[in-house]
Structure formats: structure tokens, C-alpha cells
Amino acid sequence: MCVLVSNSLLIERHFIQIEEVHWNYAPSGMNLIQNRTIDEDEEASIFLKRGPQRIGAVYKKAIYKEYTDATYCKEMLKPDWLGYMGPLLMAEEGDTVVIHLKNLASRPYTVHPHGLAYTKGKEGALYPDGTGPMLKEDDAVPPGKVFSYEWILTKTHSPTSDDSNCVTRLYHSHLNTVKDINSGLVGPLIICKKGTFSTLSYTNAFLDFFFFFSFTVMFLVSDENMSWYIDDNIKKFVSDPTEGLKDDPNFIESNKMHAINGFMYGNLPGLNMCQGNRVNWYTIGFGNEVDMHSVHFHGQILTALNHHTDTISLFPAYSVTAKMVAQSPGLWLLACNVNDHFVAGMQAFFKIFNCYPNVHETKPAYKLREYFIAAQEQVWNYAPNFPKESEAQTFVSNGPDRIGSSYKKVRYVEYTDSSFRKKMQWSSEQEHLGILGPVLRAEEGDIIRVVFKNKASRPYSIQAHGVQYTIDQDGTLYNNRYKASFVRPRTVHTYEWTVPHGAGPVKGESDCLTYLYYSAVDSVKDTSSGLVGPLLICRPGSLERGMQVKEVIH
């Protein structure tokens, strides 16, 4: 990257080369989330195990690489956590970004930005726009050629006064967008308010972003079936390609790689930080209709879009910038909580170190709110009052090949005390909760203590959203193997969660934020079996003021 200053505005020159590489989605050969080899893991094997009619974990891709100058001899270093994404580009209002793109791939590509202004001749997108040959050179850079793109961060494209100093955008090849992106040509772009870098030289600001606790994560089901290189990958990695293999539904599914920055099943490296660090998360969604993601940061509270949360929602070509103060040392899970995506490997770890002994978590000036909850099995009727002539009989009548409306389930049930002898009675106003567990309520500064007894026939847990806790209280089972994530039948575990000050509703929101809790020994099966309930995080004093206000939980 070369930086020039002209009329007090920055001109950033990037020398980027498109190269074809072989990319490994799980270089460890492991499902690191569960500490199992690919061969030992039934789900991971679907995508990552090579076979006579399977490609496996390694695919030919095209990626953007940055070099120091126009010789394209010395590659610029980038953090490992960027994966196969291109180099991170940054600009603040008024800057000009110049991309000298050299294409060393075997077919034409381009580069096109989101969030920057450009002229028609520098757009990098092929479509019938009515322009002549002189304005079409940017639409396809042939193999072996170089084209220079020039983009500007104008005031209208910059973050608004209500935004963070910097917000997340992206860039990608736009010749055939679907095939280009699934082939690997995508990268992050961070655009900032004017003056963001004024207290530092640009180089220092850039290095600060790279190495001091700012991370870009892209959630994408990379469909290798739609890559330009699917035939090359079959030829190289499939030892016995049968006729019609590309139309085989199981083969097609095996090539849909549910990845974060191009890594699956915990293989994403380098998301490391220290307790107390202020961390920026630049999150990106891309892909097609399946790429609707719920990104959960375990044990942490983030601020995103002027809202406190622990989960960020993403969809294709949408990005969210979030801020977080890292709390509680440990190896924490970062995952998409969409059931299919979670099982298919869209999971990673971020690690919080206790770097500074004098840095401690803020302890709430608290009120203790204690609950006694059991997991209990019962038969649940989904439709106890449907008339027999109803069209719903397809779903609610039982027979030789139908279960009907009644299923064996497991529910969270509240008790009055730790003896777990007397159930809390629901009022008529609580009956709408149905199969849900009891509503847990707390305010900023509170501690929630849940004494959980497993009265069911298999292990369960409680995983809470919207609260902070130490790593040994994480209710999701992965390679931590803490008791909190695997409460055996007829045993009791006590969970303690804190609601830090500043984690509740912001000005303009209702008095309480709605979260949930659920069992996560196997989150897909546990929630489908019935173990889920609501959790409300409220402003200080609002619970006492609002005790007479009716709640309806949907």
C-alpha cells in the first residue's frame, strides 16, 4: 500500500493481485469445536471428508492478495483471521482509494466496492448499462492484465453522526457476481468519519486496526457448486467421478461450505484479545437466500446499531459494526445460531486472555434474583381443542402413519425453592406462554442465580442470552466440557449470570429487552424437544414500577 497526500486529502494506492490457490476450510483436520477428527465427526464428514465422489476440505479458489508496489513481488502481510478474504481496505471521508488490480487468474475478474463513489469507467461491474467500449474496460480485467480503479469516500457515503466512527462495507468481483464471490473474490472495506485518523499517521492507524483488537468476520455459505472452479476441483480431488455427479443432491450439499472467513468447525485462527480490551467487530453477511445469520458472541455484551445485544443479525450484502469490552478470560464460542448453519460448522472461537492482572470485571452493585427451574418430560398436546372436521387434521390426527397432536417433550418448569417439590403456579395471564419456560427477569446491575435440576432422562443445560458469565458457566457443550454445559439426569447445577450496567435498553427503547434461554448440550435437538424460555433485561427500577403491566411473550 502506498499513501500520498494531496490538498490535505489522502490518496491510498493498493497493488492487488488476483491469484488462484488451493484453500483448506479445516486445515487442522479436526472439528475443533468438539475436539474430534473429521473422520470421527458424522456432520463434519459430510463437508470435509474426501472420498471417491467427494471433494473434501480443499478447493481451488481465486483470492485477492496485496503487494507493496507495482512490481507485485513482495506480498503484504495480513492477519491470519482474514482467511481467504482480500486485504482490509480503509478510508475516511474525503479519501481517494486507487486499486491497481493485476489479474493472474485463468479467467477475467474485477473489483467493485460497496460504500464508495465511482465513475462509470471505474465501477468494476458488468451489466448492460449502455456505455461504450472506453467505459467498459473496468468490467472485465483479462488474465495477465492490469487495470486501475479509483473510488472516493464522499460525505454522502460516509458514516452519519449517529454511526460509529467507522462502519463496515465490502468489495468483490462483479463480472458474474454469484460465481465470482463463491470462487473467493471478496474482501472487507472499512469507511470512517472525517478526522478519524487525524491523531495518528495513517500507517499507525492502519496497524492499530490490524493488530489491536479489531476483527472482521464474514458469514457466508460458500457454494462451491457455483464456483468457476467446480470442474477443476472434481478433476483434482474426486477419484471416481460418476456420471451426473454434479446433479447429485448429496454431492451438491457436500460443497456448501458454512464458513466464517473461509474456516469451519473452529478452525478460524487468531481472534485473540485481552480482558478489558475495547474490541471492534466488523461483521459481514454475503451469499444467497440461505445466508440469514444470527451471530452469537458467548458471554459478552455488544453495542450495535445503538442497541445492546449479544447476537447480530446478518443477511446478504449487509454489514454491522459492533463494539465490545472483552470480559471474562477463556475460550469463547462465536457461531451462527441458525440450526442448519450451526450443525454444518459455522462456528469459531475467540480467546480472551488475562493479560493485565490489575484489570478486573466490573462487579454490579446488585440485587440477587433467584430462580429454581427443573427440566421435566411430559406429553404436550399442540392442538387440544381443534374440531374434528378442521383442515388441520392433517397435522393433529393420529393414525397408522401419523403421530398426531401429542408429543413427548421436555420443558423448563419453575419451583418455589431448592427442594423442587412445589411448582410455581401460573396465573391466567401466564397461560399464553404455553410450552415455554418461565419468564426470567432482571435489571441492570443484578445477578441472576438459577438453580437447575435435571429431572429428565438425558443431559441438558441452560444457555442464557443477554447476560455475562464466566467461562465455566457457559451452557453450550463444546470442547470445554464444563459441568454447566452437561447437567446429568437427577443432578443439580447452579448458574450465576450478571447483568452489567449499560447492558439494558438505551434511550428510546421500551423498559425491557427480550432475550431467551435454552438447553445447548445439543442446541438443535434440545430446543426442538421443548427446552426454551424468555429472559427480560430491564432498566433499573422498571420491574417494580411495571409489576402490574401485562406481558405477552411471542
From TrEMBL:
<dbReference type="GO" id="GO:0016491">
    <property type="term" value="F:oxidoreductase activity"/>
</dbReference>
<feature type="domain" description="Plastocyanin-like">
    <location>
        <begin position="84"/>
        <end position="194"/>
    </location>
</feature>
<dbReference type="InterPro" id="IPR011707">
    <property type="entry name" value="Cu-oxidase-like_N"/>
</dbReference>
<protein>
    <recommendedName>
        <fullName>Ceruloplasmin</fullName>
    </recommendedName>
</protein>
<keyword id="KW-0479">Metal-binding</keyword>
<dbReference type="InterPro" id="IPR045087">
    <property type="entry name" value="Cu-oxidase_fam"/>
</dbReference>
<dbReference type="InterPro" id="IPR033138">
    <property type="entry name" value="Cu_oxidase_CS"/>
</dbReference>
<dbReference type="Pfam" id="PF07731">
    <property type="entry name" value="Cu-oxidase_2"/>
</dbReference>
<feature type="domain" description="Plastocyanin-like">
    <location>
        <begin position="261"/>
        <end position="350"/>
    </location>
</feature>
<keyword id="KW-0560">Oxidoreductase</keyword>
<keyword id="KW-0325">Glycoprotein</keyword>
<feature type="domain" description="Plastocyanin-like">
    <location>
        <begin position="435"/>
        <end position="538"/>
    </location>
</feature>
<comment type="similarity">
    <text>Belongs to the multicopper oxidase family.</text>
</comment>
<keyword id="KW-1015">Disulfide bond</keyword>
<keyword id="KW-0677">Repeat</keyword>
<dbReference type="InterPro" id="IPR011706">
    <property type="entry name" value="Cu-oxidase_C"/>
</dbReference>
<dbReference type="Pfam" id="PF07732">
    <property type="entry name" value="Cu-oxidase_3"/>
</dbReference>
<dbReference type="GO" id="GO:0005507">
    <property type="term" value="F:copper ion binding"/>
</dbReference>
<keyword id="KW-0732">Signal</keyword>
<dbReference type="InterPro" id="IPR008972">
    <property type="entry name" value="Cupredoxin"/>
</dbReference>
